[in-house]
Amino acid sequence: MKEKNPGTEENKGSSRRTFFKQSSAIAALALTPVSIVKASEKGLDEKIASAFEKMPLRVEINSKAYSLEVEPRVTLLDLLREQLHLTGTKKGCDHGQCGACTVHVDGRRVNSCLTLAVTTEGKKVITIEGLAKGEELHPVQQAFIQFDGFQCGYCTPGQIMSAVCCIREGHANDPDQVREFMSGNICRCGAYSNIVDAVMHAKKGGQQI
Amino acid sequence: MNPFDYKRVTTLKDAISAVKPAASVFLAGGTNLIDLMKRGVTAPETLVDINNLPYNKIEKTATGIRIGAMVHNSDASEHPLVTENFPLLSLALKSGASPQLRNMATTGGNMNQRTRCGYFYDTTMPCNKRSPGSGCSAIGGYTRMHAIFGTSEQCIAVHPSDMCVGLAALDATVTISNGKSEKKILFTDYHRLPGTDPSKDNILQKGELITAVDIPFNKLAKNAYYLKIRDRASYAFALVSVAAALDIQNGLIQSARLAMGGVAHKPWRLFEAENMLQGKRPTNDNFLSAANLAMTGAKSFGANQFKLKLAPNAILEALHLAAGKSAS
């Protein structure tokens, strides 16, 4: 019964952890498919409960400190959208192929759909909601409006978050370089030429990006 | 995604002991693993997060450079020790994936990524790599992205990495630790051919961890090129890619390095073509001979027949682009 986690605190009778395990095991049994129920009948319920258990997560999102509890399998994207209701970050493909979910983690652009939320412990996350200063739009946001860098707008938060880093990384020196270093963001409306113009304009504008 | 346990480790010893149980795996950048878990291709019970292990530096050694296993692909591609000494690797890295994915992906993780064969990803289809003994759906199926070298009756998948093609060409070595001792093996011996066990992509054993990749200094930096042919201008896996590097002195090729991606279950080093070029002039005729020699034993499977023509043309083009750099 304990073979998977020898020596962890569950063997020492931590009551809070045991409670979590039991309660989540009951929820698991009530909500999960036959295969898992069968697994629990084989005495694996402890393991299942352990896997469903939430972990503490301390993370700073858009300059605000959060102390959260998340299941290990929750992605940063789902944490932002479902738990914190920061729905500016979009779910496109959910498989790292489209870039709609791009956010900054410790200043680097990443795909939040492939980032487990628990791996952002102690880190700083910036989403599209955290880019503007109050009512004042970020220069890249302003440039996307000025150059019509979108049609339906669904990929736009990811495009803008990616573009900000593209400029900061020094990869926006000419249109070809912008195209290459923005290639992780797909726009099915095909607003690419305007997006390139917007990024080049923001770069040349000389404002703090 | 299946529920799983998550363990964060900070030392090699803890990492090795945490990954010992059968259904435990390491989590590095996660760009491939999380995707595979979402699709149900793999369902580990425990993820051991190794992102806090201290293998995140690129250092100069007595004989070359050492890239830590946890160095991100984007950082490696721009590091002066890489761009100045091994521009081939920088080009290969930058041609892979997207800036976002390169920010997440690590050196060790990139080496251990799985094939992008559509049948491996489709859990409703037989696949000897995903489910040993179930059969290969690619053979007789749609094979545009599949291998032409080193295939077996059980698997014709390709290794998808660009970085690995560059490292294979550059005579890199891999350092592997089991927590007690280290071993070093040639990069070209790390990945394996499918043979009768396609489920194994490489020689890494359970309880082992890649800690670093070493690249020896060479004289190939001036004449190096990574040519990647793909269905989009960027952000797509290679149909065929070629890493080419030449040491040209007094108009003669002193030594050559050639490796291909998108054509085999492992980065495909072209030793015979390299040997043929040694001592020759960098001419179109010699490059063509090398390209034709490199194609010995190539075999297509239907829709990937075009690779039999594309591959030698790509080798020829890559050699010209590598050689052309010295003209200035």
Low-pLDDT runs of 5+ residues of chain A are 1-26
Describe the sheet with the most strands of chain A. 5 strands, mixed
Assigned CATH superfamily of the largest domain in chain A: Beta-grasp domain
CATH class of the domain at 223-324 in chain B: Alpha Beta
Q: How would you state the average pLDDT of chain A, rounded? A: 85
SS strand fraction of chain B: 15-25%
The class by helix and strand makeup of chain A works out as alpha+beta
In percent, how helical is the residue content of chain B? 25-40%
Determine the N-to-C terminus distance of chain B: 54 Å
Number of domains of chain A: 3
Strand segment tally of chain A: 5
Shape of chain B: globular
Tell me the CATH superfamily of the domain at 223-324 in chain B: CO dehydrogenase flavoprotein, C-terminal domain
Q: List unreliable stretches of 5+ residues of chain B.
A: none
Question: How are the strands of the biggest sheet of chain B laid out side by side?
Answer: 4-5-8-6-7
Describe this structure as you would to a colleague.
The complex is a heterodimer of chains A (209) and B (328). In chain A, helix 1 packs antiparallel against helix 2, helix 4 packs across helix 7 (192-204) and helix 5 runs parallel beside helix 7 (192-204). Chain A contains seven helices and five strands. Chain A has helices at residues 15-31, 34-52, 76-83, 139-146, 156-168, 175-181, 192-204, and strands at 55-61, 64-70, 102-105, 108-111, 124-126. In chain A, a hairpin with a 2-residue loop joins strand 1 and strand 2. Helix content of chain A is 41%, strand content 12%. Chain A is α+β, with helices and mostly antiparallel strands and 209 residues long. Chain A folds into three domains: 9-52, no CATH class; 55-128, Roll (Ubiquitin-like (UB roll)), CATH 3.10.20; 139-204, DNA polymerase, domain 1 (Orthogonal Bundle). Residues 1-26 of chain A have low confidence and may be disordered. Chain B is α+β, with helices and mostly antiparallel strands and 328 residues long. Chain B has helices at 12-19, 33-38, 73-78, 80-85, 87-94, 99-104, 107-111, 118-121, 163-169, 271-277, 284-294, 307-324; strands at 5-8, 24-27, 46-49, 58-60, 64-68, 173-177, 182-186, 209-216, 223-229, 240-249, 252-261, 268-269. In chain B, the strands form three sheets. Chain B has a five-stranded antiparallel sheet. Chain B has a four-stranded antiparallel sheet with strand order 9-10-11-12, with helices on both faces. Chain B has a three-stranded parallel sheet with strand order 1-3-2, with helices on one face. The longest helix of chain B is centred in the C-terminal third of the chain and has 18 residues, at 307-324. In chain B, 54% of the residues are buried. The A-B interface holds A 4-5, 47-48, 50-52, 55, 71-73, 75, 94-96, 99, 102, 108-111, 114-116, 118-119, 121, 162, 165-166, 169, 171, 179-185 and B 1-6, 8, 21, 27, 30-31, 34-35, 37-39, 45-47, 49, 51, 74, 97-101, 103-104, 232-235.
